[in-house]
Structure formats: structure tokens, C-alpha cells
Amino acid sequence: MSTSPLIGPVPRVALSREEAAAALGISLDSFERHVQPDVRLIRRGRLRLVPVCELERWAAEQAEPTLGRR
Length: 70
What we know:
Number of helices: 3
Strand content: 15-25%
Radius of gyration: 17 Å
Helix content: 25-40%
Distance between the termini: 60 Å
Order of helices and strands: EHHEEH
Largest sheet: 3 strands, antiparallel
């Protein structure tokens, strides 16, 4: 029996393209067309991962100010 403490959930630092699209609430097709060209990807063979920080950066850059807010 192992004596190491239980490890809680491990935070994700990168998502698959499908997961990234779901995190943004858009389809994979929309992600590939409108988001993927503007974010850096981790490429390993056929695997493509999107760093969470890239999604957060992209979303912040795309956000528009609320009208009437000063």
C-alpha cells in the first residue's frame, strides 16, 4: 500500500481543440476558422493542444467594452 498523500484534481494547462472550442462555447469548425489562426498550439505528431493561457489571451483581446461604461 502506498503511503503518499492523495492528490486532488490536477489543473489542465492545455486542451484539445475540441475541448478548447467547448470552453469558448463554439463549434470545432468555428474554432478552427476564427480562433486557431490567432493562438499558439502545442504540436506533437498529429496531436494539437491549445494552452489555456492562449484561450484566455484571445478571449480578452476579443472582448469589447460595454456601451455606456466609462
